[in-house]
Predict the 3D structure of the following.
Amino acid sequence: MMTHVRERGAIGLLLVAALFHPGIVVAHGSSDMEQDPCTRLAGDSMVHFSAYQPQYELKEQYCTEIPQEGDTFLVVDLVDPALRDELVGMRVMMGNGKSESDGEIIVADVRPTIHPDGVLRSEVKLDEGLYRVIIASEKHNLLKRPQYLLRVHMVNYQKLALSIAGPLIGGLFVVWLAYRFVRSKWMRRWWTATPSS
């Protein structure tokens, strides 16, 4: 009987640890470039996008969620050396491009040029809202152009709900586990067998 209770308790503790600290359970090795959410394909070549706001956080880099409004440095690393010999440009537009009636405003337009150092740079002032960044190469058609949707100074309610749901479910599970333990026959027998002083 005690072994059964210990096994259930150990499983319960592992589940609680998994809910509160998912990084412990999931093995995380070095990040593969293909799994990086900031990496996109430009035809058969790869590009990596980063945004920086050194006036707020000196070393922090962002990809699609930019926490503050203001001056932002946009950097595209041309990962594939073949792209460094091509004409590559970047366009930043306000809006998400889902409907034609949005009337997207061009915020920045870096004309296609050759980038021997493999880095495409631009500095833009971003207000709160949605933006679309398009990396364009003259050798690739429109359908294969990498795009990034930026959310500037906006609350991501889905991410917020998920961050609250995990601890809430974990807490409810612990309460349920404690209730089941207190109501168990073993606990009642132990409680009644304890001599009162």
About this structure: The first helix runs from residue 2 to 20. The first strand starts at residue 39 and ends at 42. The chain has four helices and ten strands. The two ends are 28 Å apart (CA to CA).
